[in-house]
Amino acid sequence: MKKILYVASALAFMACSSSQNASKNDDANVDQAAKYAATITAKDLGTHLFTYASDEFEGRNTGEPGQKKAVEYLKNFYVKNGIASALGGDDYFQEVPAEWLNKNSRRGNLKSSENVVAFIKGTEKPDEIVVISAHLDHEGIKNGKIYNGADDDGSGTVAVLEIAEAFQKAVKAGKGPKRSILFLHVTGEEKGLLGSKYYTENPLFPIANTVCDLNIDMIGRIDDRHKADPNYVYLIGSDKLSTELHNLSEAVNKKYMNINLDYKYNDENDPNRYYYRSDHYNFAKHNVPIIFYFNGTHVDYHKHTDTPDKINYELLENRTRLVFYTAWEVANRENRIIADKVEQKKEEGK
């Protein structure tokens, strides 16, 4: 009897110790996530955006000189921060041929363009890929006016840069993500989601190995519905393909940010149909779980007045950190999130 009691006591002690260790590990993971999220700042986001959405980049029209300057800016950032190309070597550009663009676009004669692809290799599950995306292009110059596209989608673009830098700082400290992360800047979104379509048809990593796409398209402004309570972001698509991703997203927000997650545009009956109108949808068509982060439209949407001085950088910081925390959790959790639903809708485009 004494021996049985001793064994039972020892097992209880071991279970308690294991639970305490697990709790400590969870706390350590929280502390690490918060540590690197804190490196994402309104100041740094603003520094990037006042350059990226400046007149120098001429509205970043697909295939035009301003867009070429934009992709060089993105490449130089990744090189400077020691973040590798997903293609290997010093080539960060996935070429999108003019012939392919014009075959797939309904919007005129387009020149060749490129997606920008940077990559952090996972420490434990390198073949599982978490994609963080934003579109790098905008409307260019119309009637002599430059459409700078600060919110659309300069805000998403610089958010991806800051998220990448935060993960890279974790790598340098020996805290790199368990799964690999692809930082994907796609071209031709304004021409019909073309860059993301090209990537998903010509993926650098198997679509079957792609865990999810966290897509950021306009997160720097406030729409009319939220002027009284601006601490919000619209989430679209988080529950369309993966219940698990949706629940994870909710839990991460509650733990770290407490942003009002507004699902108004996630309603299948919403007439705006935003779920089908940004780059995440090309992943969703291949049954890759997605989340689309969006601040809604505003008076400067698709106008030359969408300039970086109108961005709310505190909100941009908060929303960018939310995406980082979500990516951190997806990349570091023990099991890959499961897609328990199937995408059945047809492509509608932008």
Protein traits:
350 residues; alpha/beta; Aminopeptidase; two-stranded antiparallel sheet; 9 helices; 17% strand; M28_fam; M28 family metallopeptidase; metalloexopeptidase activity; EF_Hand_1_Ca_BS; Peptidase_M28
CATH-derived topology: Aminopeptidase
State the separation between the terminal residues, measured CA to CA. 73 Å
For the CA atoms, what is the radius of gyration?
21 Å
The coarse silhouette is globular
Helix/strand/pairing class, anyone? alpha/beta
- Main beta-sheet strand count, sense and barrel state: 9 strands, mixed
Spell the H/E element sequence: HHHEEHEEEEHEHEEHEHEH
CATH class wording: Alpha Beta
Mean pLDDT: 92
Write down the domain tally: 1
**Percent helix range:** 40-55%
Number of strands: 11
Count of helical segments?
A: 9
Please give a quick description of this structure.
By secondary structure, the chain is an alpha/beta fold. It is built from nine helices and eleven strands.
Write structural notes for this entry.
With 350 residues, the protein is α/β, with parallel strands linked by helices. The chain has helices at residues 2-37, 42-52, 65-80, 98-104, 150-172, 194-201, 243-256, 280-284, 313-332, and strands at 84-85, 93-96, 113-120, 125-135, 140-142, 145-147, 179-186, 210-216, 232-236, 260-262, 290-294. The strands form 2 sheets. Strands 1, 2, 3, 4, 7, 8, 9, 10 and 11 form a 9-stranded mixed β-sheet that branches. A two-stranded antiparallel sheet has the order 5-6. The model is unreliable at 1-24 (pLDDT under 50). Pfam families: Peptidase_M28. This is M28 family metallopeptidase. GO terms for molecular function: metalloexopeptidase activity. It comes from Polaribacter marinus.
